[in-house]
Amino acid sequence: MTRLLTKSEHIPYPLLLLADETLDAINKYINNSEIYVLEQDNITIAVYVLQGVSPDTIEIKNIAVDKLFQGQGIGRKLLYEAIARAKERGYQNIIIGTGDASIGELNLYQKVGFEIYDIKHRFFLDNYPEPIYENGIQLRHMIMLRKVLE
Ligand code: ACO
Q1: Which of 74, 86, 125, 148 is in Cβ range 3.0-4.6 Å of 94 for a Cys bridge?
Q2: Tens of pLDDT along 39-54?
Q3: At 144, phi and psi to the nearest 5?
């Protein structure tokens, strides 16, 4: 189970930078968001960031697991937790965006119940200073996924 980071604590930028390429991009949302951290022996090993984007929709702006702990089911658990928090708070939708070449994330998000509903065309070309590659493919568009909360 994660805990909410307080405003006076250090933001775990090294982890956030695993999910988002630049500090500039992170700083656009981080101060208006809630940061949930997963700790083991007082070390932050995973994080996710939630931001209400409209009265009925909350967005997972960033989710990252320390490289040493990836592939062990932590990301999936954090997604289920974020979904549960969104429900508790009365939101009707939870959304998440990822790159068009982010095959692993597209797979994982759909496995936990998100569905593609939109594409932000040219997002990675227009918002980042350098080309970003994943799985040998340049990221161009952001794929938006949504889970409707019952
Ligand atoms: N092909 C298909 N599916 C894959 C692949 C791949 N190459 N790689 C990973 N997956 C998927 C599978 O669905 C797998 O599920 P399975 O075990 O049933 O096969 C799942 O990823 C792995 O699930 P977890 O172990 O729960 O995931 P993990 O703890 O590694 O967390 C995360 C996932 C957060 C994406 C982590 O790998 C990470 O921190 N990556 C770097 C940062 C990042 O890219 N974050 C997301 C960016 S988008 C955003 O932040 C909004």
Answers
A1: 86
A2: 999 999 999 999 999 9
A3: -100, 130
